[in-house]
Amino acid sequence: MKWEECKQGYENYLKLEKSLSQNSIAAYINDINKLEDFFNNNFKGVNPDKVVLKQLKSFVEWLNDRGVSPRTQARTISGIKSFYKYLLIEEKITSDPTALLESPKIGRKLPDILSMEEIDTLINAIDLKKSEGQRNKAMLETLYSCGLRVSELVNLKITNLFFEQGFIKIEGKADKERLVPVSGRAIEEINKYLSNYRKNLRVNKDSENILFLNRRGRKLSRVMIFTIIKNLAAKVKLDKKISPHTFRHSFATHLINGGADLRAVQEMLGHESILTTEIYTHLDRDYLKSTIHQFHPRS
């Protein structure tokens, strides 16, 4: 049973049975590619069904020797465990060699967040004289107002905007839909973008229902969103390492520290487990509350 055959079957399993996104599938397959490369270099000829625990422990030691962080090691091991769970389900193996494979102990990492002033500084640094300026302002207001993942932002559809009701519909992980309240300020900036920028674009047929587009009338890439935020942070000399996800973290933290119900925040973020949402309750409340009015500054 060759590696390629197993990986192909595993990829189909993740896509069809687990309904994972392409980004998640790519991450899982990348973990198995690392494992395959390690075996090709150290245990040549050993196929997935012949792997044993001792060899897997050598793989973890190899990751550690290369300076891979404990958190990344844990994520990689999780991917490998998922792969062998699939092989067991498909009866390609009779016992799971990862059953006793331990992940490194990692602390619970608190996400970086932005204060209200820092968010305003970033948004105000957008050059509205540039043609894409209003688009960028609308995107950042939407990221922060709704706590979206970057993939949810770039895939946001015009037909999923329900501004009269004050909601937008989000198609999240594993195609799960949720309704998220949208602030008046975000609605205002999106409407400006629609009337002043998007209507003048020659929109690609495949992107007609996508809200945020590049100058060629196509859907923006995730990388482009990262680049826009990185450039703004450099422009205002913000001494923090931030990404689109930082706006999501800030959204959740500001809500919870302002007194919002944890279950409500879980629903808005689209977290399957409330344990994922609970991480935001461990942040410095005194520091955050100085920047918060009621539940959310954009309310």
Helix content class: 40-55%
> What is the annotated CATH architecture of the largest domain?
Orthogonal Bundle
> Can you give the mean pLDDT?
87
DSSP summary, beta strand count: 3
The value of Rg in angstroms is: 22 Å
- Main β-sheet, in a few words? 3 strands, antiparallel
Describe this entry's structure for a reader.
With 299 residues, the chain is mainly alpha-helical. It folds into 2 domains: 3-89, Orthogonal Bundle (DNA polymerase, domain 1); 116-289, Orthogonal Bundle (hpI Integrase, Chain A), CATH 1.10.443.10. The chain has 13 helices and 3 strands, in the order αααααααβββαααααα. It has a 3-stranded antiparallel β-sheet. α1 runs antiparallel to α2 and α2 (22-42) crosses α4 (70-89). The relative contact order is 0.10.
Tags for this model:
hpI Integrase, Chain A, three-stranded antiparallel sheet, mainly alpha, 52% helix
Structural topology:
Blueprint: H1 3-17, H2 22-42, H3 53-65, H4 70-89, H5 116-124, H6 133-146, H7 150-154, E1 161-162, E2 167-171, E3 177-181, H8 184-196, H9 222-235, H10 244-257, H11 262-269, H12 274-278, H13 285-289
Antiparallel strand pairs: 1-2, 2-3
Helix pairs in contact: 1-2, 2-4, 6-8, 6-10
Describe the structure in brief.
52% of the residues lie in helices and 4% in strands.
